[in-house]
Fold this protein.
Amino acid sequence: MSDPRFFPESALVILRQTSWDPDAKFDYEGMSGGLVWSDEFPREVIRACRCEDSWAFRYILAYRASLIRGEPREQFGVVWDQLARECPNWPGLRPERQSPALLEHLNAKEDRFVQELEAFDQSCQQTSQDDQRPEFP
C-alpha cells in the first residue's frame, strides 16, 4: 500500500493528462477547506486515490488554501511538492490559483459552507427531537 499522504501512481497518470481550462469554475471543498477548480480532478483521480486509501486530493487543496491565507501548513506541503515534481502542468499549480487575491472568495465560500452545515445540523436536531415526542391518538 502506498503512503496515504501522496497521490498513487494510478492517480498521477490521470493528473498528467489534465489541462488548464481558462473557463474553469471554482467551488469550495468543505472537507479540505479549500477551493477546487472544475479542470483539476477528473472523477477517476478521486476513485484511484480512494482505492489506495489516499486523501492526497484533499491535502493538496488544504495546502493551497493555506498558501492563499499566507499561512502555509507544512504538513501538507509534501503532496504539493509531489505534484510539482510529477505533474508540473497540473492546472492546480498555476500561480493565480494560490494567490492571496483569492482570500475573499475563499472566506466567503467557507462562511457559506459553515452556515449550510449549521442549518443542516439544526434540521437534524429538530427531526431527532420530533421523533422523540410521544404520539397521542
About this structure: The mean pLDDT is 93. DSSP finds five helices and two strands in the chain. Residues 66 and 72 are 5 Å apart (CA to CA). Residues 9-132 form one domain.
